Amino acid sequence: MIDLPPMTPPLKHSVTIEGHRTSVSLEDAFWRALGQEADRLGMTRATLIGQIDRNRPSGIGLATALRLFVLSEMQKRND
């Protein structure tokens, strides 16, 4: 038997990226982790999302890029 973390369905949030409003759907755990990463890097969550958006490959959705960023940062700290 495995223990699962608390889970929520994706929650839609509006964000402004370089002056343009958009919405992104992410699970609450990812929103919280993005906030923690932004704090760790000394920036706002919106700034971090903007940087991830600018650097993501074409064909990769913003929500996917955000999730993979969070996963990557957590893996770096656990290595």
From TrEMBL:
Domain of life from the UniProt record: Bacteria
Positions of the Ribbon-helix-helix domain: 12-73
Pfam (any one): RHH_4
InterPro entries, per database record: RHH_dom, RHH_sf
Gene3D superfamilies (UniProt xref): protein bp1543 (1.10.3990.20)
Name assigned to this protein: Ribbon-helix-helix domain-containing protein
Lineage: Bacteria, Pseudomonadati, Pseudomonadota, Alphaproteobacteria, Rhodobacterales
